[in-house]
Amino acid sequence: MRPATLARAAARSSALAVAGALALALAACPAPTRPTRTAPGAPTVTGAPPTQAPSPLEVVARVRIPFGVGFLGWDGRFLWAVGGPFGEGRRQWLVRIDPRSRTAKRAALVGILANGLAVGRDAVWVANGSGRGAAYSQSERGPGFPQENSLQRVGLGPRASSRYLPMDYPEAVAADHGVWAVRLTAEGLELVRVDAPGRPRVVAELAANPPAFLAFGDRRLWMATPVWESGDGLLTSFDLATGAVRTQARLPKMVPSGLAVGLGGVWVVGSWGVLRADPATGRPSGPVVPILSCAVAVGGGFLWIADGLGRVYQLDPANGTVVGQASGVGRNRCALAYTEDGLWVADARGVTLVASGR
């Protein structure tokens, strides 16, 4: 197997290629207005137009940060973001955003290759990959930065002090029900649970590919991963007590780029659009809504989608109808967080708050 950093770079490049091809395809022709099957084994796609034009989503506020944001999380009081200047050997920042004062403050320096962000009960966790490898050869600085190859724990207190748990090639992290991480190995992916006082424990080994997307819901941990060889996706759920695999289902022709759970479904966005999976089995249920998608969130009774090209959509989860739409937000970024104020969208220069169209 290739080195982990190169494997991840290839996976990300493939994901961007898929998204770019889909964007061109959608721009060149209108979405279908009746169910169609575009390829053998592909999911049924529906593009039934809404009964009325989508309401415009109001841009309520913008919080400027002098660099792009790649991940977002919400702790009930503050919004947390990871981002930084792009470039060889440039480390990223964990930023704390106050939605009331509309201000942002750098809380902690994180790694060169931050792969994930999760907000727990008393800390924010960042999955720091490695800067070592061909793509990051100029970042070598002696033994390496302490943030590399680690789960970084940043306290929610005013000092926001950091602690580092060594972990090779962490791919993703989740912290709603305990702290869980996915790490890349030569054989595939490992699911790791971090037990107090910070001891990692491997609970599952999977023959799966990066990148991995994690979400909690229906008393389980869910993970969506791509199957690059066939252009499919794989949706796996795990028992929260033991980490054992509960369900595993193939998602035909759906390379995932985001995952959320709620509103009666497990929602996967990716190469074909927006797909709902049955929480009981993990299998696809219902047609795919053909909207170019790279991030998904649930909140306020709606499904929220970002396409990474500057558009955000508000969908009715019952039928996939677009009821709200905003343009000029979220360009070149794929991160969403829903709060009591509305939907926060990552931008190339900070975050933007949009309000519901309904």
If you had to describe this structure to a student in words, what would you say it looks like?
It is built from 1 helix and 28 strands. A hairpin with a 3-residue loop joins β13 (189-195) and β14 (199-206). It is 7% helix and 48% strand. With 358 residues, it is mostly beta strands. The strands form 7 sheets. Strands 1-25-24-23-22 form a 5-stranded mixed β-sheet, with no helix packed on it. The chain has a 4-stranded antiparallel β-sheet with strand order 2-28-27-26, with no helix packed on it. Strands 3-4-5-6 form a 4-stranded antiparallel β-sheet, with no helix packed on it. The radius of gyration is 19 Å and the shape is globular. It has one helix at 4-28, and strands spanning 55-56, 58-64, 69-74, 79-83, 93-98, 103-109, 114-119, 123-128, 150-155, 162-166, 170-174, 179-184, 189-195, 199-206, 213-217, 220-227, 232-239, 245-251, 256-262, 265-270, 273-277, 295-299, 302-306, 309-315, 322-331, 336-339, 342-347, 350-355. Residues 1-51 and 133-144 have low confidence and may be disordered. The longest helix has 25 residues, at 4-28.
